[in-house]
Amino acid sequence: MKKVLKIILLAACAFLFIGTFVFLWQKARPSYFTYELVSMQDRTLSSSVIASGNVNPENEVQIKPQISGIISEIRCEPGDDLKQGDIVAVIKVVPEMGSLNSAEGRLTTAKINYDKVLKDHKRNEELFKKEIASLEEYEASLSALETAEEEVKNAEDALKIITDGVSEKYAYMSNTQVRSTINGKVLDVPVEVGNSVIQANTFNDGTTIALVADMRNMIFKGEVDEIEVGKLEEGMDASISIGAIPGRKFDGILTYISPKSVSDESSNIVKFEIEAVMPDLDDSVFIRAGYSANAEIIIEKKEDVPSVPEGCLQYDEEGTPYVEVYKGMDGKKQVFERRDVDAGFSDGVYIEILGGLSSEDRIKGNIAIK
After folding, report:
1. Domain total for the chain?
2. Number of Cβ atoms within 10 Å of the Cβ of 280
3. Do 73 and 181 have their domain in common?
4. Residue-wise over 254-276: b if at least 16 C-beta within 10 A, else e?
5. What is the 3-state secondary structure (H, E, C) of the chain?
6. Which phi and psi (to 5°) does residue 120 adopt?
7. Is the pTM of this model over 0.70?
8. 312 and 298 in a common domain
9. CATH number of the domain to which 317 belongs
10. What is the CA radius of gyration of the chain?
């Protein structure tokens, strides 16, 4: 039994010794990395600023009444398309008691005066037929009758305006019918039938009955960091991506850069507001107001310039850029030679090579496989 244990112990020691030797031998062997080889290619490089924000109609109009009262009918709902002049809502006028009493008193007085003038005219007419009254007296009484009749009509119209908001004579111009002032889509109707509304005037903004916008003219509004705002100029092209419409980009033109910053006191981040119009929108896609979006504003662009991945470039202590050009194999080891290059414009991924390389050269890439 002791002999068997001794043999097992010697075998374990031998196995441990051989394993240690193999491990150390493997560690002592030189290891080589095989690097990806990259060639210079012509590419379009561009530098841009990204702004986050929303898209909204450029022109949103609040439809407000020109008369106070109570809404008796609403003839539109969000999503409806309206033309200029379409009726949005109908308002029932609630007369003011003082004005109502005054209008009723005016009508009563006008009718009393009309009855008196009518009697006088009939008497003058009989006298004129009997050639007792002169033509001048007859014409004067007729004129007084016509004046009294017109005053009755005016008093009736005034009373109708107080009670109904419009006279029969100008029914087509009724302020009780609130109409859309533009062609567009209804975005919101913040009132309901039965709500009281106030007319818009110089002292009061009035009650908004509907919000209407032309959805063919959209505008992007966003913010950019203070570090990047100095690179922007009005008139620059923008490519707008909308989160709710993936896979499609919309053209835009930068039209506004705020001269005043918008500060976030909690994070001390200073940003500036920008706006970009989105011309030439068609009916192939419906953009809803308030969609979140990003705008990529092209600052500089170069087309078909020779370039390599920026990660292939290295810099020495003096800041001179260089690459390592592949020269061949030394056994299993790749051999590279340093070559200084002239670097130009970069888009953050690729960098322009102005000189020092040819399209036939292959350089060390930034991907290595052991």
Report:
1. 4
2. 7
3. yes
4. bbebeeeeeeeeeeeeebbbbbb
5. CHHHHHHHHHHHHHHHHHHHHHHHHHHHCCCCCEEEEEECEEEEEEEEEEEEEEEEECCEEEECCCCCEEEEEECCCCCCEECCCCEEEEEECCCCHHHHHHHHHHHHHHHHHHHHHHHHHHHHHHHHHCCCCCHHHHHHHHHHHHHHHHHHHHHHHHHHHHHHCCCCCCHHHCCCEEECCCCEEEEECCCCCCCEECCCECCECCCCCEEEECCCCEEEEEEEEHHHHCCCCCCCEEEEEECCCCCCEEEEEEEEEEEEEEEECCCCEEEEEEEEEECCCCCCCCCCCCEEEEEEEEEEEEEEEEEEEHHHCEECCCCCEEEEEEEEEECCEEEEEEEECEEEEECCCEEEEEECCCCCCEEEEEEEEC
6. -60, -40
7. no
8. no
9. 2.40.420.20
10. 44
Percent of the chain with pLDDT over 90: 30
Beta-bridge partner residues of 293: 53, 242
Domain range holding 102?
97-164
Last residue of a domain, one of 156, 188, 213: 213
- Average pLDDT rounded to a whole number, residues 339-352: 91
Tell whether 308 and 352 lie within a shared domain: yes
For residue 244, give both structure tokens: 């709710």
Q: Which of 26-35, 139-148, 187-196 has the lowest mean pLDDT?
A: 26-35
CATH number of domain containing 116: 1.10.287
Contacts of 164 (CB under 8 A, 6+ apart): 93, 176
CA proximity to 142, closest of 116, 110, 120, 112: 120
